[in-house]
Amino acid sequence: MPMEYVIGIDGGGTKSLLHMMDCDGNFIVELDGGPLNLNATGKEAVQAELKELLFRAADRSGMPLANCRALCIGAAGAARSDERAIIEGMLRELGLRGIIEVTNDAENALAAGCEGREGVVVIAGTGSLAFGRDRDGRVCRAGGWGHLIGDEGSGYAIASRAVAAAMRSFDGREPPTELLPRLMEAIGIESPEQFISFVYRQAGKQHIAALARIVNEAYLAGDQKAAHILTEAADELALMAQTVLGKLRFDVRPIPLVCSGGVFSRIDVVYERFVQQVSAGGFPIEAVKPTRNAAYGAAKIALLSSRGAVS
């Protein structure tokens, strides 16, 4: 009997990643691809990219697409019913006969961290959100409303609050802070007035979010304002996690709490206070920093689906 396998795809707005494993969970191949965002690139471009990525995986592994028992593809917003139908149709046209699951990026991150589908993930990168799935397959999310009205605790939120604090310090509305000279040096400006051009004309969300590391450096140097900003970030992320944990019912004990994203991996004080605050809410959690990528998580979901498992 021909060997069967599963595929997981993490589809981003700028690139994608495919992970293929056999039905025992053993690695076969992992490949990079182009963007798979329907809203950003359009249906024809996504279809062409999927075709190229899947055909390349079949060629590299030496196994036809017809042997794929299950495929899970995830991306931000892709789990909406209309987009899910479009993507499923594309995959069927390419010759996929097995199970197809279209998920969101948070669900893949959860599976990458806990090796299953039951638990909670909090993502704190450029943006932020919390997502959970319980024993009955019910899902819940909190946050993730974008940098203008949400994304509390994210790299962007931390950095934007730091820039605001630096300007208040420059005005004399707040005491001096290490954030002002450190941010100026990191950006490469000579006067505080140049923050205006950087923030409003030059920098995108990712450029601003990258400055969160400067806030951490100022905190480690003893800056009180930086400490306040990072404490606030941890508490906001903990509130997201507690909100999701409180709305779902879990069989697993302790409940996996996957802490994903650069804020958790690079700013220890945020991670440590976050875990402390969630635990203080009375939730029996086990915090995990994922060591696998979201494409692996998608492949794990595909593997569980191929076995008829919910979690």
TrEMBL record:
This is N-acetylglucosamine kinase-like BadF-type ATPase. InterPro entries: ATPase_BadF, ATPase_NBD, Euk-type_GlcNAc_Kinase. PANTHER family: N-ACETYL-D-GLUCOSAMINE KINASE. GO terms for molecular function: kinase activity. The keyword Kinase applies. Keywords: Kinase, Transferase. Residues 7-302 form the ATPase BadF/BadG/BcrA/BcrD type domain. It holds the Pfam family BcrAD_BadFG. It comes from Cohnella phaseoli. The keyword Kinase applies.
